[in-house]
């Protein structure tokens, strides 16, 4: 393959993975029949707008529901809204929550509390819901939650540790939305963006029992060296903020189903690669760990492949982390992974890699134009050298976006309206075409 052919194939595989996880594909087959009363749609996360659009269309066209029986609210990331009539869609901050998410969560709780026994609360949950639905516990203000979220994100803590804290500082997460809706039935359809598809971790599990405790939340802050503000420490020491556990009456009339998961996206990407004659090797479906360290491991695998009869793709999913030590850098774990590959594969011929977040945003400041990741190959090194750039220096500053903006290797997709975690593909060919 030529360098351009490698890049084109990587992008086709990534796009196939994203398409397989879109709400228009995975939500409709699982939507329940309407009850005697109303369908109250409550959606949160980066795919919430698309979920609301799909659900509204389904109930209008198949069952003829009007605004008297179909209502709700979807809270999604800025730039991820979709057109709807009766299910309102609002945009809010991610990954750091904002005032719009605060109001959206309060309104969602109010709608759940209004549900009667003849109604159905339909919760459509996607990754990003933890930040989009922000309802601080008593005594905690938005600024304190924002500061805690920022500190955890900078610490390199994995998503389950971050969410154990979020769930115990919230009036909606950790099963509390189900408690608000009780005794109305609650059906949750979730698009998973977390390793092992744990329902209690997806968007911090607003409709399922929470296996974590206040003690777990305190331990997470201690482990990742996050010094909590006084209000945060007080809330995490207050037994009233313990989340509902298995057996709680709040869950007696609830159901939960994961309708799309990271593996579905990986399989779609794999199929695209195999159709192109590539030998695909999965090196981890739900990887976690420091992005640059995982990149080093994958670079070593690539160098050790030996003579090839046909191209080989090392593919992985999961969510990597970045422990931020630099100042003023930009970029998320996919770009840091790609930048580490550029460093670790310098001088190695015939390769290309794509690392991207299926939601279309890898780090960034919460803008719809944030990069989704990066596409790199030996040409990246050549362009960097021509500009006097060193990958190692940019890694030290955690400034992968800055590097790739200079080399022209940023992956831009815009909002994809779904989120099933990351796709990383390292393609190794026998020789340049």
Automatic annotation (TrEMBL):
- PANTHER family this protein is in? GLYCERATE KINASE (PTHR12227:SF0)
Q: Which Gene3D superfamilies match?
A: Glycerate kinase, MOFRL-like N-terminal domain (3.40.50.10180), MOFRL domain (3.40.1480.10)
**Key words of the record:** Kinase, Transferase
- Enumerate the InterPro entries for this protein: GK-like_C_sf, GK_N_sf, MOFRL, MOFRL_assoc_dom, MOFRL_protein
UniProt signal peptide:
none
Q: Where is this region: Disordered?
A: 357-379
Q: Which GO terms describe its cellular component?
A: cytoplasm
The protein's name is Glycerate kinase
Source superkingdom = Bacteria
UniProt GO MF annotations: glycerate kinase activity
Location of the MOFRL-associated domain: 10-235
> Where in this chain does the record put each MOFRL domain?
312-422
Output the Pfam families linked to this UniProt entry. DUF4147, MOFRL
